[in-house]
Design brief:
Blueprint: H1 2-20, H2 26-55, H3 60-83, H4 96-108
């Protein structure tokens, strides 16, 4: 879970560094953008899905949530990779990095919530 928070921090930082680099060619920028999308799908789609599955002891009922999380991440990333930002300046909707932050927050503070809040359906 600590790695998920570090992934969010480095993802925020790499965007800032990439925009400030001078002298990059167009193809380098395109390659970096596509590499960022690949890393984002692993950090914000695959990793939270695996965390959710492991929390549920890999029971089939948790597979539904993990699939939805991974599919929504892939759809969001592919949409913004294809169509870009709205108005060329900002994202609309919930960012994927919030997915990891919220999931880590829930697991870290699970003991402070009511007992039935995170019990499995089975």
């Amino acid at each position: 879970m600590i790695g998920m928070i570090w992934a969010v921090a480095f993802d925020w930082a790499d965007g800032l560094v990439a925009r400030r680099m001078k002298g990059r060619k167009g193809y380098q920028s395109i390659f970096g953008g596509q590499l960022d999308v690949l890393i984002d799908i692993v950090n914000y789609g695959v990793t939270p899905a695996i965390l959710l599955m492991s929390h549920g002891n890999f029971e089939p009922v948790f597979l539904i949530g993990a699939f939805i999380m991974l599919a929504a991440s892939a759809i969001r990333l592919s949409y913004f990779s294809t169509f870009g930002l709205s108005g060329g300046a900002k994202y609309t909707g919930l960012a994927l990095d919030n997915n990891s932050i919220i999931l880590v927050f829930i697991f870290l503070f699970e003991s402070t919530f009511s007992q039935g809040s995170f019990s499995s359906v089975a």
